Amino acid sequence: MTELTASPRLKGWHRLLAFLAVATTVVGSIIGLFVVPPDAMQGNVQRLMYLHVPAAWLAFLAFFIVFVMAVLYLIQRDPRWDMIAAGSAEIGVLFTALTLILGSLWGKPIWGVWWTWDPRLTTTAILLVIYVGYLAVRSFAADPERRARWSAVVGIVGFADVPIVYLSVTWWRSLHQPPSSPMSMAPSMLWTLMLNVVAFTLLFGYLLVRKYQVAVAERALEDREAMR
Amino acid sequence: MSEHKGRRSGKKKLWAGLGLVAVVAALAMLIGGGLKDNLVYFLTPTELEARGASVQGEAVRLGGQVKPGSVHWNADHHDLRFVVTDGKTQIPVHSTGSPPSMFQEGIGVVVEGKFDSNGTFQSDNLMVKHSNEYHPPTKGESPRETFKTLMPGNGTSGSKD
Lengths: 228, 161
Prior knowledge:
The structure holds two protein chains of two kinds.
Chain A: H1 2-5, H2 12-35, H3 49-76, H4 79-110, H5 119-140, H6 144-158, H7 161-171, H8 187-227
Chain B: H1 2-32, H2 35-38, H3 45-51, E1 60-66, E2 72-74, E3 79-85, E4 90-96, E5 108-115, E6 121-129
Parallel strand pairs in B: 4-6
Antiparallel strand pairs in B: 1-3, 1-5, 2-3, 3-4, 5-6
């Protein structure tokens, strides 16, 4: 019950996390847009990298957390693992969609097309479908325990696509280029990218904490209604 | 309240069911679908030539490098001719419309289209592959303004007429 009435205001380290997330995102965006030089080949369009790559990284991280939480849930049957998994999946879907949209905006001026069915793009689209499916499974099962069990299975099996997405550009021929490395990027660009990866990760951490708080409150409400 | 809830959850279940079907289909595609065969995104010039007459008139994707010195761009008619090579086999390509601004000699391209009766690959869709290397312009060099330049350098770069 106490969770339900817990203050929605930010306290302590949540507040710090929110501040750090916003601050690094603002600084990272300013540097990415105005400070770091543009790419010699692609010009200013290349600046999309500072959003596209962190978004993709976060989608991977989010689904990895879903995977770990799903395994933990199936072992321990603790509903808290399920709540974290659900929150992480939702944020992951958001960032996967963002990755696809930003990639499409980047693709048009550089590749010449908004979209093509190359392995990287196709497996990423499948990734989005899998985790939208994960969320659909959750709304399908009314019973919290069954919901957690079913979605945990989807969260574990579906994670198989994450390494496939990552390795698709090395395994198969594609239009998308293989991953860049610190060797293939100017140091200034690498640091800007890293800063934005950190910013997005903090943002993700903050969103996940808030999603978890909402899930706890919702669960308490569900239990109370079930009791009536 | 509770009667509304029943209807709403029915609708929700329908959407959830559709979602479930979609995820199962996606997984089946991924795992059981002969992943490797389906994921040959483009054929190299050598592979395409080896298929010979069997791909005549059939829509395929061709990938390779734009052979240096082979680009003929007619800016007035938006007519582009170049040769795609993998170092072994060369295939002449004809494309209409403006190429992506990154298009240039020596760059990787993926072309969608089919062979005409003269053995020229008629492109419907020209895509440019870029590398994973990023670096700022060197001193004195200005960064490419992709939205302004149709072709690198002057407007008819590579044209050899």
